Structure formats: structure tokens, C-alpha cells
Amino acid sequence: MAGSIEHPIALGADREQVSLPLLGSVHEWVVTVDHKRLGMMYIGGGLVFFVIAGLQAATIRLQLAIPEAGIVAPQVFNRLLTVHGTAMVFLVGMPVLTGFLNYLVPLMIGARDLAFPRLNAFGFWLWLFGSLLLYFSYIGGDGLYGAGSAPDVGWFAYAPLTERAFSRGNSTDYWILSILLTSVGSTATAINLLTSIFCMRCEGMTLRKMPVLVWLAAVVSFLMCVALPPLSAAQIMLLLDRFLGAHFFDTQAGGSAILWQHFFWIFGHPEVYILVFPAFAFANEIIPVFSRKVIFGYSVMVAASCAIAIISLSVWAHHMFSVGMAPAGNAFFAASTMLVSVPTGIKIFNWIGTMWGGKIRFRVPMLFSVAFLVQFLIAGLTGIMLGVAPFDWQLTDTYFVVAHFHYVLIGAIIFMIFAAIYYWFPKATGKMLSERLGKWHFWLFLIGFHMTFDTMHFAGMRGMPRRIYTYQPGRGLDTLNLIESVGVIFQAAGVLILLINVIRSIRSGEPAGDDPWDAWTLEWSTSSPPPEYNFATLPVVRSRRPLWDLKHPEDPDWKYE
Amino acid sequence: MSAASAISTGAMNLGPVEPTTLPSRGRVGIVILILTETVFFSIFVAAYVFYIGKSLNGPRPKDVLAPPILNTICLLSSSITIVLAMRALQAGSIRSFGIWWLATLALGGEFMVGTAMEWHRLIYTEHLTIRTNLFGTTYYSLVGLHALHVTIGLILILLVMVFTMLGYMDRRHAERTDVLSWYWHFVDAVWVVVFITVYIIGR
Amino acid sequence: MMMKRWLLAIAAMMASATLAVANDWGMGDANSKIPPSSIFSPVSTPASDISTLAFFVLAITGAIFLIVGGLIVYSIVRFRARADDDGREPPQVYGSNPIEFAWTTVPIIIVFVLILITARTIYTVQAAARPPGAIAVRVIGHQWWWEFQYPELGIVTANELHVPLSDPKNPTPTFLVLESADVAHSFWVPRLAGKTDVIPNHKNTMWIDPHQAGTFLGQCAEFCGTEHAMMLLRVIVEPRGDFQKWAAAEKQAPVQDASVARGRALFESTACVSCHTIRGTQATGTFGPDLTHLMSRETLGAGVAMNTPEHLKIWVHDPEEMKPGALMPAMNLEQKDLDGLVAYLATLK
Q1: Does A251 contact C200 at a Cβ distance shorter than 8 Å?
Q2: A258 and C CB contact within 8 Å
Q3: Which of 131-160 (A) contact C at CB < 8 A?
Q4: What is the fold, at CATH topology level, of the domain defined by C31-73+99-250?
Q5: Residue C303 above 80 pLDDT?
Q6: pLDDT of A198-212, one tens digit each?
Q7: Which of B40, B54, B134 sits opposite A233 (nearest CB)?
Q8: Are C270 and C332 in contact (CB under 8 A)?
Q9: Which of A22, A548, B107, C36 is 20 to 30 Å from C321 at the Cα level?
Q10: Are B25 and A559 within 8 A, CB to CB?
């Protein structure tokens, strides 16, 4: 079954030949095709960009802390918000989440690597160079016109602001090329993950016996395969417009500005689910382990995820309620949007069902997961408000929307990424993270998050549009904005503690052992960190929780599934 | 006994192992790639259809476009020749594989020559370029995108042809070659859609 | 109390860190006389329809939040591991079809109700009939200001939309046709209606029927480039009589004041004329706002400053000072010429 994988011993032998220790280890990371190393490189790279794009956000909040502040010029502010948004989606969310899936999926399906290890490395390097291009635009974006450095068109880059007539220089071209490259990289990863899940599972692991995380990895990969191409296609059209004088989005020549919006959101909405599904996936592993209970309603969870994925492909125009669609169109997209809340609700209920009757241990990963549950609930409910088209006419493009999607992207996704870091760090490094520092991180970040983003809802409802570099005094927005900005200090402190925690643990962390959380999936059956070949002998499974079966031979899962 | 070895050996009587049969990686991979490409093309087709009749100035499709019948016949028949080639390879007959494979290459090549001639006529006789109007914009990008895929296919087919002529080809490569043939069928199928969109609906 | 003092301390810190705080040009005072543009204090039918719907949705989502949030809190408190735990695993429950069925069906019913009520409001706002007394206004979005044309009245103005008060018994709503001269914008006055995008090569429509007189603040809500933040707009709702008086004054040709002839000559001989229109002069440009009755407007530069001769001088001298990135170039006039030009502009009442 896995016979085509190179022999692990042979790979180890190559390593001995490199003599210089530091150069040798750099070389090893550069040429690696090991899914675990690539996964860690994705996560590490993503976290570096997380810090950079986070500092950009902090600058945005500093400028908006008081009305009519002059800390950054409008042009600089617009670049900050564009690069912050683009980076957080494509340079942070995507790589960190696919990094985790890269690391975990082969371990969880009992395989030695992904289906196409070299394609995996190719995807990573494509992503890295694409990411560097985005930040390189600060240097190279001037172009021959000397007009503008980094992109300043917003992360969804509405036409015709992106056309040559309104965006001179090369900043928009950097935005296009950067995202195009990272998208191709992500598509390669998605094809790889999906193929691996179909073709590389260990003996006994039928589709119905895969961990929920692997199911969600499959759903995410499917969504990436169908949602990223529309963005790439639209970006190629924009490139043709900008370089060859085509007219796709050129409103002067009869082109349509709205067509770009459709193409972008056909990608953009599923993208939200591409980012949030891995967060769900982590919750599906972490909540059961710390509740000491099997996931409640496995099949329903999987079915709900598939339903969300399918419905999410037909809701894109709810980002466009204000473009003047016909009432029937607005009603359709309002309906499909609200329909998503049904399977999403099912997921929340099943997580509660998993905790119900358990013995919940509040270790750091579980703390983040509980906060995720509450915050994702709120994000879902504000999502319903935004789905009510007339309500959206008031709320869209305001700070309410900013609050809503940060509730999803931070309140749900970043919180679950933190949970996943605390949960799987021991597996990847063999060291535990400090529980005490972890709790400081959790509480500081939680307080900061709520100060910043709860208040944004109210600013939006009081008429504050998004993407404004300043606002005038006397509009009832001053106090709200000040609280939002102060919250950033707490969030930054939390992230700083995480970094300290990681560095301390790598140096002198408590040894973790193979299975520190007393968990049930296959990655905990191998050593920490796992060997390059993952498993000395390939595992054989009989249920969704092979380690439960092993630990509880008197009450194994396979009797009930 | 560590958890790892216990779980793999199945030393403890843990219960029944459900049989699993797993498909080939190459075939699954190419199917997903084709899915991705299909979405990619459908966006260009959508743009084409959206802009039919919206050009502010001429030339218009009905004045300058003629359905490329010969090209279409050649490209579609190359799907047949590639199937015959694959049958020959699976049967172990390298010589007849080579002949059918060469035929595929030639038919694909003819398609590219035909496209080049059509573009030459449009650009130099009809003065239609990508920047002339929305028709030019959408026409060159959709047809060009398809031609790009044909070109990639032809390069890969040529590579296999070279290997065949050097005598490296044998039955063991049938699986991988077959994956390539699936890609070629996809390119053909896209042409059917492009042909209907551009030369029938769009005219 | 502690919290407030502490916030103030941080505010002071931030304020001192931002020495480069820009001048406020009188807008803070002017704004504080106008109530905040809350979407929940509507004064026009589209906005109040939305507000009513919004309260209904808030009630439903609030109830869901209380129930589900309560369940989460209950389960983490009730089912937390105790210190005296015996170390045995809790009973494993794999799922329950009746429960799954229940928490699928109930949300479907709620969603169904929400969809129906949403669709109703969509149609009442979007498909409203246009009564005979309606005023028509053509709104054109520019980078970064608003042009308002009243085709039936023959008026062209900028950034401040005057509309008549609409009596519910005898409604005189205003119907807006929205177009863009360059990139995508969005027209938004929260207390009057939801936003409608202003898109090039695409006509949109919306309507308002304000039933309270006063000034209502709004602004562009779709990112449109450098000065998106300062593409402000105000809607001035006046009783029918006052509106007609305003319209009549706008229709008149500008005053010809001999004392500012020099300023007028300067205006007509500089680049001003290629972008601005003043009826009755050689200035017929359409790239910038119509200045025929410039001084009838409260604000300058799409709401960036109060419209006073002092501010006008700063603006004409170099708009960058008030609105960095504005497309109007600095006129680089000598002080004497600047004074003369602004003296002329100040007569355009």
C-alpha cells in the first residue's frame, strides 16, 4: 500500500554526509520533502507574518485611537489596511492552517508521508516566494511612475480602482502576483492532501473510521480546489487588463465593475470556510480529549461539514447586497446565507453534546476551545444579522462587519490555532509548553480581544464605515475607538507571552512523552517528535479511536461504531 | 510494548479489521486537478458569456469568426488515437503505441497551427486584438487559455514520444501515461465547451 | 471609576504621542450639534423598516445567544473535572438521533421565519412605487466628493443634499439615481436609508422620505482610494417652503459684485475653469464641484472643513493641507491674488 515511499533508512543516511553543522541543518530544511518539516515551516513562516501583519494592525489602531490623528498619512494607512488584510488571509491563515493539516493528516491516517512529497515542497516554496513578493512591494512597488509603494486597494481590490487609470505604478501587480503564487501553492497542497486522504490510509481505516480532523481536511481541500481557481482566473484577467490593455474590468470600455465582485466573492466566501474548517477540525480533536468523551454525533458532524461546504458555494453575493441586485437575487442570497446557520448550529450543539456528561480538564488548549465556542457562536449570530439583506444594507462595509469577521478570524480561528499550538507542540518537539504562561496568554488575549472587537460592533451601528484613515470628532465614535485601541496592548502582550513560552520550552521544557494528553488518535502512538518515517511499522486500526481501543480493551469503540 | 508497536502488530485481540481498498494516487490526483481546472475555465467561460454583445465598437464576432471545423475534428480525433495508443501500450505492443501516439501528437500539432493561422488572420486582416474591444478581450483570453493547455499537453506528449523513440517505453509506464491521457481528454472536452461558447452561442 | 481614569491616562499618553494631530477645521463643534448617525434612530421609511426588522432579528439572535451560551456555561461548570475525581473515564456517548433531529429542525423553523420576514422587507424597500410628488436627484460619486443634480429643477450642487421634509399623509419622497464618474463608491446616510453602491457603468436607485427636519451625516462607505475617509456628505432636510426657497436661490445666476471683479478675472484666467463651473462665467469644467453657489454650502472639500473664507484660503492655496491626496492641485497663488480670488468666491452665495 505504501510501498512506493522511499526507504526511511536511506533518507537518514544522506543526512550524515553534510559536515558543517549549521549549514547542514539549514540545507536539510531547504531540501526536505518531509510533511512534518514542511508543516512546521508553514506554521513558523505564517507566525512570522502574523507578527508583522499584527504590528501593522497595531499601527492602524494607533492612528484610529483618537479622532483626526496624524500618525500616518492616508496613503500609508491605506497600504497598511490592504497589506494587513491580504497578509492575514494568505500569509498567515492559509499557511498556518494548511501547515497543521500537512503535519497531522499523514500521522492521523497512519501514513509515512503525503501522496506527493515533492509537490508538497513545491507548494511551500511557491507560498514563501509569493508571500515575500507582497512585502517586497514596499520596496519595488513604485514602478516607473514613482506612484505608491505597497498595494492600497483593499484586500478585495474592487475594480476599477485596480485598473491602470486609478492604480499607477506596480503595487497592484505585486498584490496580484503574490496572491496568484500563494494560491497555486495552496491548490497544490489541497490536491496533495485530498489524494493522500483517498489513497494513503492505513489498514482498517475506512472513510467512516477517519478522525473528524481528517474528514474536515478533505472538505477543506475540496473547497480550496474549487474556490481558489476563480480568484486566480479573475486575477489573470486583471493582469491582462493592466499589462495587455484588455478590458475585463475597464468600465470606460463597457467592462463591468460588478463582475470582479462576483468572481472575487465566489472565491471569497468559501475562503472563510477554508480558514474556519481547520479551526473546527482542531476543536473536534481537542474538545473530546479534554472532556474525556468520544465526539458526539460523528456522522452528523461530518455531514454538517459537507453541507456547509456545499451551501457555502452558493452564498457569495451576500457580500454584495448593496450593489443593487434585484429583490429576487437579494432574497435568494439572504436565504442561502441563513441556511448555512443550520449545519453550523448543529456543529456547536454537537460540541456541547461532547462536553455534556464529561469530566472537563481545563488545560490551556481547552480554555482556548471554550472561548472559541462562545466567540464562534457570537460570530455566527452576527452573521445571521448580516445575512438579513436589509439589515446588511446598514451594516455592510462598516465596523460592524469588521467586528464580525474578526470574531471569525480571531475569535474562532486564531483562538483555535493557539489551542492547536498548545495541544500539538509536545508532539512536534517532545517538550511541553508552560501551563502557567499559557494561562497568562489566554486571559490577556481574551480580554484584549473583547475590548477591541466587541466595541467595533457599536461603532459600525453608529455610522463608522470601514477602511477610513480617520474620523471627525463629535460623531460619538471617540470613546469606542479608544477602547478598541487599548485592547491591542493586551492582545500584543498575550502573543508576546506565547513567543516567550515557545522559546523557553524549546530550550528547557518539560519532556512530553509520546502521549501527554492521554489522547486517542494515531499521532499519539508514535514518539515525540515522530521519526522521519512516522511509524516504524504501519498501524492497523479498528475504530475511530485506535488508542482508546488499546487503553480500554474491556470497552473498545469498534463495538459501537 | 509501546503503543506504536501494539497498534501495528495487532498483538492484542482488538477486534475485526475492516478491509480497505485504496485507489491509485496518480489517478486520484489528476481527477482533482481536472476538477480545479474545470472551475478555472468556467470563470473564463462565464466572463465570455457575460460580455457577449457588450462591446462598444467592432469588429463583432459574426463579422470575423468562422467555426474552425477542421481544427475541431483533428483535436477530437486525437482523443480517439490516444485511447488506441493506450490500448496498445497495455497490450504490450510498443510499436503500435508509438504510431498512435505520434498520430495524437500530429493531430494536436495541427490544432495549434490552425489556431495560430486564425489568430494571424484576426490580428492582421481583421485588426482585432485583445485591446480592441470586449470581444477581443474575452476571445483571446478564453481561446488562448485553452491553447495554452493544449501546448502543455503537447509538450508532455512529445516527451513521452521521445522516450518511446529512445526505447524506454514499456508496459510498466502504462499507468502514468494513462494519467497523461486523462489530461488530454480533459483538454478536448474543454474545447467542446469553448467551441460552443465562442463559435455557436457567441456568434 | 478606576477604569475611566485609567482610560483617560492612556488617552493622554496617546495624544502626547501624536503631536502631529491635524487641525479640526471646525468640524468637531459642528458635528457635536448633530446627533450620532445611529442606524437605530431612523427618520425615513427605508431606515425605519430596516430598524424594525433589525430589532426583530436582534431579539431572535439574542434569545439564541442566551440559550446556547447558557448551555455552554452550564456544561463547563457542571461537567468540570473535580479535584476528588476517581480517575475513571466518563461514560462514552456516541450520539443520539432524536437529539440531532431536534436541534436540526428547530433552527430550520427559525431560519424559515427569518427568510420570510427578510424577503418582505427587501420588497417593501426595493420595490416601492414612486408617488407623483417625488423629487428626482442624480447622485454622481467622484474621487472624493459628491455631485448632486436636480434635473427637474435645473440645479447642480455638491456634497450637501437638500431634500424636502416628507409628510406621511402627503409623501414627497426623494428618488436618487446613483452613478459614478470613476471608481466604486457607496452612498450612505444611516438615519435615512441603508447604503447603495455607486458604481461606474451601472445605474442604481434608492429613495428616502425624511419625516424630521435637520441635518443628517453620511459618508462614502465603499473604499474608493486615498481620501475615502473624507468623502463625507450631509443631507439637509427642510420643510417644503424652505426647500423651495433654497431651490429658487440655487437656480439664480451668481451675483455680479463689481468690488471683486479682480478676483473673478483671476478665477477665469487660471486653471480653475478647467475643472469648475460657475454659471454665467467662462468656467464650465465638470471635473470638480460646481461653485455657482459655493457659499450656500456649510462645508468645504466634501465635509473636511467648515466653509469660511479663512478655510477657503487654506484650501485654494493647497488642498493637501486639509485633505492630503485630494485631486485638486495647489494653486500656488501669491497672497494678494489669493485674497482677491477668495474674496470673489466668498460672494458666491
Answers
A1: yes
A2: yes
A3: 152-154, 158-160
A4: Immunoglobulin-like (2.60.40)
A5: yes
A6: 999 999 999 999 999
A7: B40
A8: no
A9: C36
A10: no
Does pLDDT of B11 surpass 60?
A: no
Q: Indicate which of A149, A378, A394, A545 best probes the interface with C, i.e. most C CBs within 10 Å of its own CB.
A: A394
Nearest CA in chain A to C204: A324
Q: What is the ipTM of this complex?
A: 0.93
* Identical fold between C31-73+99-250 and C258-345: yes
The pLDDT value recorded for residue C20 is: 43
Whether residue B33 lies inside any domain: the answer is yes
Closest CA–CA distance from residue B33 to any residue of chain A (Å): 7
Flag if A226 and B39 touch (Cβ within 8 Å): yes
- pLDDT value at residue A219: 97
Q: Kindly list the partner chains of chain C, i.e. chains with 3 or more CB atom pairs below 8 Å.
A: A
In tens, the pLDDT along A333-387 reads 999 999 999 999 999 999 999 999 999 999 999 999 999 999 999 999 999 999 9
Domain boundary assignment for chain A: 33-559
Spatial separation of the C-alpha atoms in residues A149 and A168, rounded to whole Å: 10
Question: Could C75 and A355 be called an inter-chain contact, meaning their C-beta atoms sit closer than 8 Å?
Answer: yes
For residue A314, give how far its alpha carbon lies from the nearest alpha carbon of chain B (Å). 14
Beta bridge partners of B70: none
Pick A33-559's CATH classification: 1.10.10.10, 1.20.210.10, 3.30.70.890, 3.40.190.150: 1.20.210.10
Under 8 Å CB pairs connecting chains A and B tally to 160
Domain regions of chain C by residue span: 31-73+99-250, 258-345
What are the residue ranges of helices labelled H in A1-114? 8-16, 21-31, 35-64, 74-86, 94-108
- The answer to whether the Cβ–Cβ distance between A199 and B35 falls below 8 Å is no
In this structure, is residue B90 part of a structural domain?
yes
What backbone torsions phi and psi does residue C234 show, to the nearest 5 degrees? -130, 145
Could you say which of C15, C81, C103 has the minimum Cβ distance to residue A359?
Answer: C81
In the predicted model, is pLDDT for residue C153 greater than 50?
A: yes
Chains touching chain A at 3 or more Cβ pairs under 8 angstroms? B, C
Q: What is the mean pLDDT of residues A511-540?
A: 94
C258 min Cα distance to partner chain A (Å): 38
- Check B28 against A259: CB less than 8 A apart: no
In 3D, which of A449, A426, A447, A412 has the Cα closest to residue A501?
A: A426
- Taking alpha carbons only, the member of C185, C130, C188, C177 closest to residue C149 is C177
What is the model's pLDDT at position B19? 85
Instruction: Tell me if the domain spanning C258-345 has CATH number 2.60.40.420.
Output: yes
Interchain contact A12–C (C-beta under 8 A): no
Q: Which chain A residues are Cβ-neighbours of C71 within 8 angstroms?
A: 352
Q: What CATH number is attached to the domain comprising B183?
A: 1.20.120.80
| Contact yes or no, C with B (3+ CB pairs under 8 Å) | no
A66 to chain C, minimum CA–CA distance in Å? 8
Q: How far is C325 from chain A (nearest CA, A)?
A: 8
Calculate the alpha carbon distances from A421 to A43, A287, A522 in Å: 10, 14, 18
Lowest-pLDDT range of A141-145, A441-445, B149-153:
A141-145
The residue range of the domain holding B187 is 26-201
Task: Please name the amino acid found at residue A464.
Answer: M
